[in-house]
Amino acid sequence: MFDNLSEKLRNIVREKELTQENMQDVLREIRRALLDADVNLRVVKSFVASIREKAEGESIVQGVDASQQLIKIVHDELVKLLGKELQPLDLSGHPNIIMMLGLQGSGKTTSSAKLAVKLKKEGRRPLLVACDIYRPAAISQLQTLGKEIDVEVFTINEEKNVQNIVSKAIEYSKENGFNTIILDTAGRLQIDVDMMAELLLIDRIFNPQEKLLVIDSMTGQEAVHVAENFDAQLNLTGLILTKLDGDSRGGAALSVVHCTGKPIKLTGTGEKLNALEDFHPDRIATRILGMGDIVSLVERAQEVFDEKQALEFQEKMKKAEFSFNDFLKMQKQMKMFGSMDQILGMLPGVNISQSDREKISHEGEKQFKRIEVFIQSMTPDERDNPELMNTSRKKRIAKGCGMDLTEINTYVKQFEQMRMMMRGMNDMKGMMGKLSGKMGKHAMNKALSMMRRFK
Fold it and tell me: Could you give the 3-state DSSP secondary structure of residue 265?
C-alpha cells in the first residue's frame, strides 16, 4: 500500500534539512513524488502550496529540528488530504439501506459481501439484494458469496423491474428481522444514461442512507473521473477503495477525497471476505511516512487471534509441552493476520525499503511453507510428541517431504531451542515475581532500572 510514494516521501522528509535556501528544492521533490504516484495535478498543486505556506512560517525557521517539523507538516497535510478523520457508515433507518455503486470490474459485488461480513461482525443482520439484472451470472455470484459468508441473498426470479425488487426486499427485511439492506446494483463498462436513470430512480424512491461508490484504486486518474461523474448525478455519501493493498502508488486514494469532497469510508485490503476495513486518514498518513500503524495492528490482532487458544499455548509453553501441531495452529492464525509485508508496514520504526520488505516477506513465507511440509510429513504421534524424534524417524520424514536430512536436523534443533527459550522466559518471569514480593516494590523498581541501564 503506497509503497513507492511512501519510500520517496520518507527519503525526502528524513534526509532533507529544511531551510529557507533549499525549500524550493524540497517542495519540487515532494511534487515530483506525488506526480509519480499518479496523484491528480490539482491535488498536487494544493498540497504543495499548503506545505509551502506552513513551512515559510516563523516556527520552521527558528525550530530546533527543521526536518522533524517538515515531517509533521507533511503528515498533517496528508491527513487533511485523505479526509481528516474516520467517517463511519450511517446506519440509521428501519431498515437501513446501503446502495452499492460502481462500474463493472471495480469489485462491487465482492465488496457488498465483504460489507455484509463486517456488519454481521458488528452485530447487525444484513440482507444482500441482487439488483444487477443485466450482467450474466451476477445473481448467482452474489448467491455463492452469500452462502460462503452465511448471509441471505434476496432475489426475484425473472424480475426485470429493479424498483420492484428493492420494494419487495424492504418488505421481506421488515417481516424477517433484517436491519440492513445492501443493494448490489448493476454496473456498466462505462457510465451511460440508462444506468444513471435506473440508479436515480432507486435513490429518489427509496432514499438510501448510504450511496457508496466502489472504485478500483489501481485505475489511478480514471478513478477520479468516475467518482466525479457519479457524484454529480447521485450526490454520493462516500467511497470504497478496493485493491488498496496492491496499489503501490496511491494516486487514487490521495486524489478522490479532494476532487469530490466525499470521504473514503472503507477500503479493501485483500482478497479474503473479511478484508474490508474502516478508513482512518491519520493512520494511513503515518504509514505513508514510515511511522507504522500500531493501532490497526492491535485491532487486527484482537480480531484474528483466538484468546482461548492463545491461553492454551501459553500454558503449554510454560511446561515445555508446545508441540509441532501447536506450531501449525499458531502459523494458521498468523496467516489470517496478513502477509509479513503488511505486518512490517504497520510496525513503527521499521524503516525498510519496499524491495527489502518484499524479499523478507517472500523468503519468510517460503520458509514457513517448507516447515509446514516437514511437519505434515510426520505421524500424528510425532507431531504431538517432539521428544519421539530420533535419527531413523528424521530420515523417514526427510524422504517423505523431499528435504535433506541436514535441513530436518536444523528444523528440529530450532524447534527445541524455541521450546526451551519459552520455558526459560516463563521461569524467569516467575522468579522475578517472587523476588519482587521479597524485595518490595521500591527495591524491585530500582533493580529493574539498573538492569535497563546496563543492558
Answer: strand
Cell representation of residue 63? 525550530
**Torsion angle defined by CA atoms of residues 104, 108, 109 and 110, in that order, rounded to the nearest 10 degrees:** 120
**Contact criterion met (CB below 8 Å) for 178 and 127:** yes
The predicted-structure confidence for 422-448, as pLDDT tens digits, reads as follows 666 555 445 445 544 554 455 445 444
Q: Which of 193, 174, 163, 189 is nearest to 99 (CA)?
A: 163
Is the pLDDT assigned to residue 15 strictly greater than 60?
no
Rounded distance between C-alpha atoms, residue 75 and residue 231, angstroms: 28
pLDDT above 80: residue 302: no
Provide the CB-side half-sphere exposure for 56 (13 A, CA). Answer: 9
- Pairing between β-strand 153-154 and β-strand 264-268 as defined by DSSP bridges: unpaired
Rounded Cα–Cα distance for residues 45 and 31 (Å): 8
List the single range of 170-179, 243-252, 428-437 with lowest mean pLDDT. 428-437
Instruction: Domains for the chain: give ranges and CATH numbers.
Output: 3-81 (1.20.120.140), 96-291 (3.40.50.300), 304-439 (1.10.260.30)
Summarize pLDDT for 213-243 with one digit per residue, the tens: 999 888 777 888 899 999 999 999 999 998 8
Beta bridge partners of 128: 153, 182
